[in-house]
Amino acid sequence: MPSRQRKDGEATRMKILEAACCVFSEKGFRDATVQEICRRAEANPALISYHFGDKASLYEAVWRRCVRRAREHYPVDGGVDPDAPVEERFRAHIDTFVRCMADSGELSHLHRLNLFESASPNAFISDVIRELRQPHTEHLCQLLAELLGPNATEQDIALCESTVIGQCRMARAGRGRRTPDLTTPLSSDETEALAEHIVQFTLAGIQAMRQRIDQR
């Protein structure tokens, strides 16, 4: 009996989490209601308190779940050997990041959550989001440090990192097209072409930056 109860409890928890992913990604944290989440999950509101504590804790659980899924599908190293040349590791990192940003299927909840937080940040979740993004940030900065060379400062690396991230995030808008479009997903060929463009464009810029840094 205890084993059955645990399974039923976990199933209920997952139903609540799935419903919360949908509601938060559709309405944002402020406009989402516990009542709506419970209605979609077909669960008693008291169960949210039991499993998650409150609405804010449930929101955090949703973020952690979405990011965990993103990492499962799109690991930060792109599956490339850590001893591979830095240019190859950089290409794999950009390719997997762009494909993640262009994913309009299972990760669509995460993309919409990001849009809501960009437009109207919630202070209580900012540290959690920063923590969740940290592995990606650290990996990219490590690659940029290798590409820029030993004379690069932390500011040099940070500026390049923000430039790279900005290019990759535009994958959602389809900037490879003549007219940006947030409604139509990028095709596999478009995604591949966009990733390769970002790699070539960035490597050329980094090469020029490294020359300036070494002459500085």
Can you describe what's shown?
- The protein has 216 residues and is mainly α.
- It is built from 9 helices and no strands.
- α1 packs across α4 and α5 crosses α9.
- The relative contact order is 0.10.
The average pLDDT is: 90
Number of strands: 0
Overall outline: elongated
Helix content: over 70%
Number of helices: 9
Task: Summarize the biggest pleated sheet.
Answer: none
Uncertain ranges: none
Radius of gyration: 20 Å
What structural category arises from helix and sheet content? mainly alpha
Strand percentage lies at under 5%
Distance between the termini: 71 Å
Could you spell the SSE succession in H and E letters?
A: HHHHHHHHH
Provide keyphrases for this structure:
216 residues, mainly alpha, 75% helix, 0% strand, elongated
Summarize the structure.
The protein is mainly alpha-helical and 216 residues long.
List the helices and strands and how they pair.
Elements: H1 2-31, H2 34-41, H3 45-51, H4 55-73, H5 86-102, H6 108-119, H7 123-148, H8 154-169, H9 188-215
Helix pairs in contact: 1-2, 1-4, 1-6, 4-7, 5-7, 5-9, 7-8, 8-9
